[in-house]
Design goal:
This protein is of the alpha/beta class and 374 residues long. The chain folds into two domains: 8-18 and 263-372, Aspartate Aminotransferase, domain 1 (Alpha-Beta Complex); 22-262, Type I PLP-dependent aspartate aminotransferase-like (Major domain) (Aspartate Aminotransferase, domain 2, 3-Layer(aba) Sandwich), CATH 3.40.640.10. It has helices spanning 19-33, 38-43, 51-61, 80-91, 108-114, 131-141, 162-174, 228-235, 248-260, 262-285, 309-318, 350-366; strands at residues 8-9, 74-78, 98-101, 119-122, 124-125, 128-129, 145-148, 178-182, 204-209, 220-224, 289-291, 298-302, 321-322, 324-325, 339-343. The strands form four sheets. The chain has a seven-stranded mixed sheet, with helices on both faces. Strand 11 and strand 12 (298-302) form a beta hairpin. The protein is globular and about 60 Å long.
Length: 374
């Protein structure tokens, strides 16, 4: 167990590393070292990925769809942010805006700002993006694309029901808004609604990655475009300009792991770890008002009235536990809800997580200090 004086980082939602991950990396490196053609493999161009790696990616993505997508619609990238950068460049022209859930992936706003794309936040509730609010945004702002994270949403951990997914897709089709779906945590869950993209495949861009389901060290992200022609058109301007492409060695490891079943074995171990951490958090937080899911890497803690998220985050740091306030997840400027996100996955051990949670519980029981209104 960690020292009780150590800072516990419950900010970033980085995956833990179950023993099977190290074991499989070691096994795979040995196999690669024995491969006489490895040198040739590493010289191969990996623009869109090799036919083998794209086919393997399509097979992996097929876990979430009723049918395996055509490999020529699949692109391998170096992580979700690289995939989103490519998609947003290609789907949001100058002078247009991007719509997103009012609370969203913390890197979306900085990424959009870097690309000079304005972001309009759309109201959400306990079921995710509100269809009526999305349609109102379509009328008022004419967004070119919608970024949406409907499955174990960051940061609220909600799962959008299937009927609402169909409604959102129908509105996007009506107003010709491209759908950009980030499905990063879905492979750790069972019995999920189908991807929102499946309701409007002709205008949807779907992204899923290893980073939030297997291990952050293997950053392979797989992007599915509406058509192979759309993929080629979108990638053409940046093909030689950025470092979006996955390395040959990462592509090969990903392909090997998909084909030999390693992906499934690691997913099971990561899901079991997530469930154990969730159970510990639920037991320790007791009657606190929070939302989560047994497969989520985080939880969304709604604060009592006497607290505000900024003060709670500050006093948590004083108590040597790092958490992220609601402000960090705003899609566009506005008043954030009175809540914070706690990462359950980033503490290295269950003992570290227990210490971090105990400090959070102590803050909730104590209330704010005088300096913060107590």
């Amino acid at each position: 167990m960690a020292s009780t004086l150590a800072t516990i980082d419950m900010g970033r939602a980085v995956l833990p590393t179950p023993p099977i991950v190290s074991e499989q990396f070691s096994r795979t490196f040995r196999l690669l070292a024995e491969n006489d053609t490895l040198g040739i493999l590493l010289r191969l161009p990996h623009g869109l990925g090799t036919p083998e790696s794209r086919a393997a990616g399509a097979q992996w993505i097929g876990r979430r769809f009723a049918a395996i997508p055509e490999p020529d619609r699949v692109l391998l990238t170096h992580g979700t942010q690289s995939a989103l950068s490519i998609i947003l460049r290609g789907t949001v022209p100058a002078g247009r805006v991007l719509a997103a859930e009012a609370l969203t992936y913390s890197s979306l706003r900085p990424l959009a700002s870097h690309l000079q794309i304005p972001v309009v936040g759309v109201e959400i509730d306990d079921l995710g993006l509100i269809p009526e609010a999305f349609e109102a945004a379509c009328i008022a702002h004419r967004p070119a694309a919608l970024y949406v994270n409907p499955t174990i949403h960051t940061p609220t951990a909600t799962i959008m029901p299937v009927t609402r997914r169909a409604e959102i897709a129908a509105i996007a089709r009506r107003y010709q808004v491209a759908v950009v779906e980030d499905d990063v945590q879905s492979l750790l869950c069972d019995d999920l609604p189908p991807p929102l993209s499946s309701f409007a495949p002709e205008m949807s861009w779907y992204v899923i990655s290893f980073g939030k389901s297997l291990n952050l060290g293997l950053r392979n992200a797989y992007l599915v475009a509406p058509t192979s022609q759309e993929l080629e058109r979108t990638i053409a301007p940046v093909r030689m300009l950025t470092s979006w492409g996955v390395s040959a060695i990462s592509a090969e490891i990903g392909t090997m792991w998909i084909e030999d079943g390693t992906v499934s074995r690691i997913l099971s171990a990561v899901a079991a770890d997530a469930a154990a951490r969730h159970a510990l958090a639920a037991a320790m937080l007791g009657e606190a008002d929070f939302a989560s899911h047994p497969s989520a890497h985080h939880l969304w803690l709604k604060l009592p009235r006497e607290w505000n998220s900024e003060a709670f985050t500050h006093e948590a740091r004083e108590a040597k536990v790092v958490i992220w306030p609601a402000e960090k997840f705003l899609a566009s400027p506005g008043r954030p809800p009175n809540a914070v996100r706690l990462s359950l996955s980033n503490p290295l051990t269950m003992g570290d997580l227990q210490i971090g949670l105990s400090r959070i519980v102590a803050l909730l029981e104590r209330g704010p200090s005088r300096a913060n209104g107590g």
